[in-house]
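Inverse folding, one chain.
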């Protein structure tokens, strides 16, 4: 499905990979549309194929989902293998949560839960590394999570941001491949749905209750949203928000 940018095509479209029939690219999608990118939405979980080349696309984003990058499903394996395409063609790629874990798996790193079962479900502190600060002037202090697994840092990747429970929060591999463990893409409506449908996970170790998710949004989301717009410029247009 193609969604056209409101001001007409300025760039090649961005490939958007989602993992549910009603899944949305949220404000990542809206920001990309506002920046002049059409969205080519594919759902491999529903049998839709991914392109064999990135020649017709400006980049790609693989979003999150309830499945694991370790699952044996054919579409999970196919997405992980497909990452050869943007990597070999050196096209911009962004993996968010599951997408970042798929990229890590593709690069030979492990995806796994903590031995103590601790999750990140809610708002948690983020600390940029020196390399992260060199790329972007400002990083959010708190970011939103909804996951039970993390990933090892792939060999050769640069760690851009870290956290207490899961140390690998943002990374870059080569010039154009990026992974985020956290979710900056959620609209308020999306977060409300996640809180309702994911309530059964709030009893897991280290998870926050639903009211904390929504209260935290009022406090922490403006900085996260501002960071996201700059980060998308960095990923897809190479615009660095350099530290002073």
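Residues assigned per position:
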């Amino acid at each position: 499905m193609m969604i056209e940018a409101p001001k007409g095509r300025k760039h090649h479209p961005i490939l958007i990979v989602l993992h549910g029939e009603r899944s949305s690219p949220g404000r990542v999608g809206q920001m990309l549309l506002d920046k002049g990118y059409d969205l080519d939405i594919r759902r491999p979980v529903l049998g839709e194929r991914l392109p064999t080349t990135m020649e017709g696309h400006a980049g790609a984003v693989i979003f999150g989902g309830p499945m694991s990058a370790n699952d044996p499903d054919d579409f999970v394996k196919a997405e992980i293998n497909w990452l050869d395409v943007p990597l070999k063609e050196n096209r911009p790629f962004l993996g968010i949560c599951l997408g970042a874990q798929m990229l890590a798996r593709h690069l030979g790193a492990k995806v796994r839960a903590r031995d103590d079962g601790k999750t990140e479900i809610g708002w948690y502190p983020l600390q940029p590394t020196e390399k992260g600060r060199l790329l972007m002037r400002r990083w959010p202090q708190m970011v939103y999570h909804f996951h039970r697994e993390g990933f090892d840092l792939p060999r050769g990747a640069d760690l851009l941001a870290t956290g207490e429970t899961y140390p690998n929060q943002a990374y870059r591999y080569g010039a154009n491949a990026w992974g985020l463990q956290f979710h900056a893409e959620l609209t308020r409506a999306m977060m409300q749905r996640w809180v309702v449908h994911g309530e059964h996970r709030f009893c897991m170790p280290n998870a926050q209750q639903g009211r904390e998710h929504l209260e935290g949004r009022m406090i922490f989301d403006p900085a996260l949203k501002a960071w996201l717009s700059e980060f998308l410029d960095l990923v897809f247009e190479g615009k660095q928000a350099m530290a002073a």
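Residues 2-237 form a domain with the Rossmann fold fold (CATH 3.40.50.880). The chain has a mean pLDDT of 95.
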